[in-house]
Amino acid sequence: MIRNYYKEIIRYDFLNKFNYKKINQIPKIKKIILNFNCKSFDIKKLAITILTLELISTKKSVATKSKKASINLKIRKGHPVGCKVVLKNKKMEFFLFKLLNKIFPELKNFKGLKVQKHNSINSFSFSLKDLINFNELNSNFYLFANLPTLNITVVYNSCTTKELNYFVNVLKFPLIKKS
Description:
It is a single chain. With 179 residues, the chain is α+β, with helices and mostly antiparallel strands. Helices cover 35% and strands 19% of the residues. The protein is built from 5 helices and 5 strands. It has a 5-stranded antiparallel β-sheet.
């Protein structure tokens, strides 16, 4: 699927576009991080977000704990505030294939992704609010109706922003172009 596309097409595109001395210099995706951030500590909401991540990614999720206390959000230091999953290798490839070929095309009124963070040249992040298109969540829709936004971070081993932009375009991520 994605691995074959990478080996057969993307690597040769990079070799033709950029000058590499070694084949190991060609950028590739290291990992994909999926996470939910809960604004308030609610054990029911936290349990549902953990279940959602496990159903979407087929991997056990980890609860994230707050590093600092926040009086405004009524969160104590060390209490759970969200959950995350780090996908690598085959699970990452499967999730990326499902995201690009099933989820994005089926989203209604979808014009593209707005990249949230671009603070490092090795990753970019975006959010998904509509999680209804995941087949894993359809059977118990009433549980997953009021989920927070899913933050997705794709981490590469690229060296320059030009390489990262080219990689994103070759994989055909539906990004909104800035004007």
